[in-house]
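User: Structure please.
Assistant: Input sequence and predicted structure:
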Amino acid sequence: MITTGKDIDVFSISDNKIATLGFAGGLYKRELMNEHYVQLKLNYTRYFEFARGSYINYQNKRYTIREESLPEEKSIFEYIYTLKFEAIEMFFQDFVLFYTMQDLHEAQWELTGTPQQFLQIALICINDYFGLTEESDKWKMGVCPTMTPILISFDSQNTFDGLTEIAEKFGAEWWLDYENKTLNLGYYEHGEEIELERDAALTDIKRSNNNSADYCTRLFAFGSTRNIPTNYRATESGSLVDAIVQRRLRLPVSNGDFIDAFPNMKPNEIIHGVKKFDHIFPQRTGEITELRIDDTQKDANGNPWLVFYFKDSALNFNSDYILPGLTLSVTFGDNSWLSGRTFELKYHDSTQEFEIINNQDIPNLTIPNDLLKPRLGDNYVLFNFDISLVGNQYVGEAEQQLLEEATQWHQSVLEDNATYECPVNPVWAYHNELSMSLGQKVKLVSDILREGSRSSRVFGYQKSLETYDDTYTIGDKPRYSRLRTIDKSIETNREIADLQHVEAMRVANGALRNVRALNYLREALENSTVIEGGLILTTLIRLGHMQGAVWKENAGINGINRGENDVAIWSGGTLDQAINAANDPTLIEDIAQFVVTHLGKLIANEVYLRGKFESNKNGYRIVIDPVDRSLKLVGSDNSVLSKWSFGESGSILSLDYNNNNTRLLASGLESSHENRFTQVSYAGMSVSEFDESNKLIRGFQASIPSDNDILEVILRKLPKSDWGLKPSQLWLNNGKLDITPEESI
């Protein structure tokens, strides 16, 4: 065993201690979604192999050698070792993020899913790799936002990079909570803000990277190419003439072609930037006034195929309005069950109807269908047509919207989003016991910062193991873009429900749960909410809170009653988890913690009652009554068959059946039938029979009095003749105790 210090022990993969080292020259480094390790240095006189799997325990966490650590040979008798012990998440680089649902094991796969679905797949891979089979040992899902499902593709990526890809797509960050053993997704920050001033707490504040690539002081903003009239913005002298630009929505003429960071910029202050806002275009919000469904059609496989047609009485349309080379399309509004969805259309001049072309982008799911369908009154927006033929006000409205959103976006990119390397003053850190963890909120104070300060959080750090010679990386944003926002609208819930519907088709056991959740949402959206004074009439209430930028559902009330397991009230989970618990109360994972169904089923973790409890089935009752402090089993004839009561003197269990009564006390056992009694206790035992006047007829008593410790046996009314007695039976033979022989008849 190597011994070069006494600060920390090193163990082999077999848990044998192989070295005791010092902290001299060692460091502890961590950066969000990048690095996390403890590095130790030592000099030794001979070669020693620190193999993969060798580990240390530091700050209640295990750090393990992941890559072979070969020493530097300084001389024939001196080797310099630099040992890198990595945290458990760094081992995620060593195994593939397989698709493991439906009992598959695919390295190349894609999924349109929610953050929860992707994290669940990653957790299966993590627990499988580390051989964790017991539920108490497994890594589980922690903080995870409810967001719109998106498509992510994987091709033999390792799990570490796969998690980073997932985080990037959802505009979030992933991290491990070692104490609770959870995998989390969100924005990692915590604690009260700590103020760090340059030349006091910090020796320097160094800018470690530039602002984002979007940074500019002069922004040229453009909208979409949708619904742009053919004669839009005829070219004028000095205007932008690029053909692509001419087909896009532009800023209002009154504003000019660009937005400046501040007025009267000098040439060397101008940094050009271009941003396209493809969601902004001239649009008219229409309303479905007529709806027709053709259910006679079939698809290529002979399956029923619903075709939906609609009209808008306020719109005078013609197929000639459709722009050449483009397909007329529609996006449905927020009041529709198809909210946010886009479909191709075919316009029939003869009937003045729009035909919705069915969408099959999600395998095994055709939309529209009998659940996801348009309704009368739905709002919609058409595109890929010349909107100027419908009305001339829509272009100006879109240009103003473009100006407002572009101005807001420009202000956001002008903000300081660089990261800063901040070495601490070791003396100040020592006296103030400064040791910050990842995500700690901080406020940097220095004249080099805009307005003299900046609020942010710890994004990474490198700490000395033996001194306060530490450096913190401070920054609001990770190294990838966080432009995607969390969608908390009802659209998110619809898309999640759609994916659950698809999963129900694949997994029969989950069909009831998923379809029921989908129907709850559909029916609730179809109904109205009435508020009149103190009266509220509604269908579905889902309660939760904002956890950072994430909406987390925690409870709700559901007024829909269609079957025995329909959820009425739930808390401690989502609606889906409540349905899970109602379907199978024996489950312990992926369930709400409190559920009441419309037919009275109650599932809860703990119950505290301050009054009587009664359970009744076919007249037989179980009663817990705090008045007489008892638990009773009551028959259908209202007779008490068993009673367990307690008081200051202890507890008593009474059993009654057909005039047989037995009582179990702390001091012993009592049993009786008519006029016969039996008692057993620590003091002795007795069997007795009494007459109607309670006079002893015959009996037996055995005890050991505490004052003499001598066995006492008292017999009353013994037989005085051995005639007719059983073998080995006691009797009085002329006043003396005798016993019949075994051979007696």
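The first strand starts at residue 2 and ends at 3.
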